[in-house]
Design brief:
heterodimer, A: mainly alpha, B: 190 residues, Rna Polymerase Sigma Factor, Chain: A, Arc Repressor Mutant, subunit A, globular, disordered N terminus
């Protein structure tokens, strides 16, 4: 065997490659949540195709996309799609149309419900060890949290809505713990915390302007303490109790 | 040196939330992960151990990268730096295990490229198995030099730098190692 053949043989070892899912997971574990590389969605790829056409218009392209999707009857199938799947953008679109169908007061609840849905998807992906879908799922969850936080800004402070927010936030915390217990690190949900903080602050100011009994004033002091400690969920529960006793 | 190696995952875009250090290190990670994994795998013959040690290599590299606040503290030669960490980890690993080389029976299914047909895969696998078996008979340093020179395309000068030895010594190691491999492989194909 000559040297050339020997080197060629050695180079067959170049076939040794790490598992792609392991590479992605390790990157996430080492560098952190933000370091996620996302492949463009199906919709993005279709739009890229349209871009090469003369007289390209996003509106036209999107309309055509919508028709194709509708004609294909893919909406039903899309409900089982997970982030990173072909039909997932359709599922997201269906979820988002929900905002058009509910009143403004119910939008914060819907926002949190959608965030919970995204966490459910993430849990399913983690359970099934679908490493390839993990990064897009975390990204989707993050986006849904930003949207939910945005919707929280319009809360009117009625006890019913506050209760729904408390319930959904509680569920969100539980789901987050569940997914983190499976080794998936979900980044801090700064946006939601900030929105909850603003909401609690608003509610506290509102309660301060009301006439409260001594017992209620003492209770409000506890709520304020929870707020200062950053325990917004507990503070909201306190506000809820105070609001009900006011009605 | 083969800088600018194609990343393992297609980098379409990076999320805007990433800070500069994360972006920079992410590129380094993509560029070298396969090479470091391959290097470690060939030294330890176990997927699990190779994954652990490769992961530890990049964890240490990231820690060093994140700590370097000034330009002068930054690593200039990543390839050398990463291989250095990896080989130290492999050495530590064998030291802990009482210097016993692990020959795993499960090293064959590493041909993961789906574009390769079954027949070709089987052929490559048997060739790769042969070369891998004889490679493991070489000494630690000889294995490293052969991997760096012929698998990773490092120059003699770069290898000399990593090993902190003269270039001439590297050339001698390569020559002797190739001779040894040739003889050993001929026993497979008499």
């Amino acid at each position: 065997m000559n040297e050339k053949n020997l080197i060629k043989k050695i180079q067959t070892l170049k076939q040794i490659e790490p598992d792609k899912d392991w590479v992605a997971l390790t990157r996430r574990q080492i560098i952190g949540f933000e370091d996620i590389q996302i492949r463009p969605s199906f919709a993005d790829r279709v739009l890229e195709v349209f871009q090469v056409l003369p007289g390209f218009s996003y509106k036209l392209a999107l309309a055509t996309l919508a028709v194709i999707v509708a004609l294909g009857g893919t909406i039903g199938f899309s409900q089982a799609a997970l982030p990173g799947d072909l039909l997932y953008p359709v599922r997201k679109l269906v979820d988002k149309t929900g905002y058009l169908l509910v009143s403004k007061n119910n939008q914060p609840k819907l926002g949190l419900e959608i965030a919970n849905k995204r966490l459910d998807e993430l849990t399913m992906i983690a359970q099934n060890n679908q490493g390839r879908n993990l990064a897009p799922a975390i990204n989707e969850f993050r986006q849904s949290m930003v949207e939910a936080a945005d919707k929280l800004k319009i809360v009117d402070g009625s006890p019913k809505i506050t209760k729904e927010i408390v319930d959904q936030t509680e569920k969100l915390r539980e789901n987050k713990e569940k997914v983190e217990a499976m080794g998936v690190v979900v980044a801090e949900t700064k946006e939601l915390n900030q929105a909850l903080s603003q909401l609690v602050e608003r509610e506290i100011k509102d309660l301060e302007n009301r006439s409260l009994t001594e017992e209620q004033i003492g209770f409000l002091a506890q709520v304020k303490q929870d707020f200062q400690d950053g325990n917004y969920e507990k503070a909201l529960e306190g506000i809820l109790i105070l609001s009900y006793s006011q009605e | 040196m083969a800088e600018g190696v194609k990343p393992d995952c297609p980098v379409e875009f990076l999320l805007p939330g990433m800070d500069n250090a994360q972006k920079q290190f992410s590129k380094i990670y993509d560029q070298y992960i396969s090479r470091i994994y391959r290097f470690v795998f060939l030294r330890v013959n176990s997927v699990d151990i190779a994954q652990d040690l490769t992961s530890e290599t990049f964890t240490r590299a990231w820690s060093s990268f994140a700590k370097a606040s000034e330009e002068k503290d930054r690593v200039k030669n990543w390839v050398g730096f990463l291989y250095q960490i990896a080989r130290n980890l492999v050495t530590d690993f064998y030291r802990e295990k009482g210097k016993v080389q692990i020959i795993s029976a499960s090293y064959s299914p590493f041909l993961t490229d789906p574009s390769i047909g079954l027949e070709e895969k089987a052929f490559l696998s048997s060739e790769a198995d042969q070369i891998k078996a004889v490679l493991s008979k070489l000494g630690e340093e000889q294995q490293e030099v052969i991997i760096w020179r012929y698998l990773e395309g490092l120059s003699n000068k770069e290898i000399a730098k990593i090993l902190d030895k003269p270039e001439g010594t590297v050339r001698v190691i390569i020559h002797r190692s190739l001779e040894f491999l040739r003889k050993e492989l001929s026993s497979f194909n008499p």
